[in-house]
UniProtKB/TrEMBL annotation:
Organism in which the protein naturally occurs: Rubellimicrobium roseum
Gene Ontology CC, one term: membrane protein complex
Chain ranges of the ABC transporter domain: 28-255
Entry keywords, A to Z: ATP-binding, Cell inner membrane, Cell membrane, Membrane, Nucleotide-binding, Transport
A Pfam family this chain is assigned to: ABC_tran
Gene Ontology MF terms: ATP binding; ATP hydrolysis activity; transmembrane transporter activity
Signal peptide stretch: none
UniProt xrefs under Gene3D superfamilies: P-loop containing nucleotide triphosphate hydrolases
Listed SMART domains: AAA
Protein name: ABC transporter ATP-binding protein
SUPFAM superfamilies linked: P-loop containing nucleoside triphosphate hydrolases
């Protein structure tokens, strides 16, 4: 890994007046984000002045020990939670200024979420689970297209109970990306899966990132996954301790868990 900033291939825009490539503008920018939880007398400082930027199409892996603030950070930039201070912007919109309705609109129009647990409707097929999103999205892809992207073209009419854990998670990924979000936020997406199944889920996430260009942030406890990222962000005690750029990304099949 090198610590120098270098943007992923394809994100450098050449300006005809500039001899040097110009870096793409950030999709996300967070400045001095803090989050303090108070429960009775107990105060927990979950985030301490976090600064962060991500550009279009980046695949970012977020590592850090339990309780270091990773989920709190992801929830704030995904519009699920608000900070105690600091600001976060998506494109040219300051999301930390939005009210509840604005945050709902931001999440609905721009953000796909994938969590450790799939939360699929058991009475609906894979296709119908994805259609729950495509029916209300502004510019959706077809449910079949999203399921094909995650390698489930042959399973679209199966119910969750007829699918393995990894396949169910891939339905959840298809559901998250079917609305064509600019960003895909994943909190421990392989957390409930064995390594062989986890690799398939990772392959699906990387394919989605490549095909759709959605800026993808993945929280994981599995340090091996850092080799797949454009950039790796390390959290510790509510702060970002380091950011590294991979000179060469590995494929999921090259990573040993
Ligand atoms: N709703 C809450 N109320 C009180 N404290 C909270 C709340 N949510 C998180 N915390 C605390 O904030 C800190 C950061 O939590 P967070 O979930 O962001 O960490 P994490 O790095 O994602 O951990 P993990 O890897 O275990 O999911 C922890 O000490 C946690 O106990």
């Amino acid at each position: 890994m090198s610590s120098a900033t270098s943007w992923p291939a394809g994100l450098r825009g050449a300006c005809r007046w500039c001899p040097e490539p110009v870096a793409a503008p950030p999709v996300f920018r967070a400045e001095a984000l803090t989050k303090t939880y108070r429960t009775g007398e107990v105060e927990v400082q979950a985030l301490r002045a976090v600064d962060f930027e991500a550009t279009a199409g980046e695949f970012v892996v977020i590592l850090g020990p339990s309780g270091s603030g990773k989920s709190t950070f992801l929830n704030i930039i995904g519009g699920l939670d608000t900070p105690s201070s600091g600001r976060a912007c998506f494109m040219d919109q300051e999301i930390t200024k939005l009210d509840d309705r604005g945050l709902t609109r931001y999440r609905r129009d721009h953000v796909g979420f994938v969590f450790q647990f799939y939360n699929l409707m058991p009475s609906l097929t894979a296709r119908e689970n994805v259609r729950l999103v495509t029916e209300i999205a502004r510019r959706p892809m077809k449910a079949e297209e999203a399921l094909e992207m995650v390698g489930l073209a042959q399973r679209i009419d199966h119910f969750p109970a007829q699918l393995s854990g990894g396949e169910q998670q891939r339905v959840a990924i298809a559901r998250a990306i079917a609305k064509n979000p600019e960003v895909l936020l994943c909190d421990e997406p392989m957390g409930a899966l064995d390594p062989a199944t986890g690799v398939k889920v990772l392959e699906a996430l990387m394919r989605v990132n490549e095909v759709t260009g959605a800026t993808t942030l993945v929280i994981t406890h599995n340090a091996a996954i850092q080799d797949l990222a454009h950039r790796v962000v390390r959290f510790g005690n509510g702060a970002i301790l380091g950011v590294e750029t991979n000179a060469r990304r590995k494929a999921p099949s090259e990573v040993s868990w």
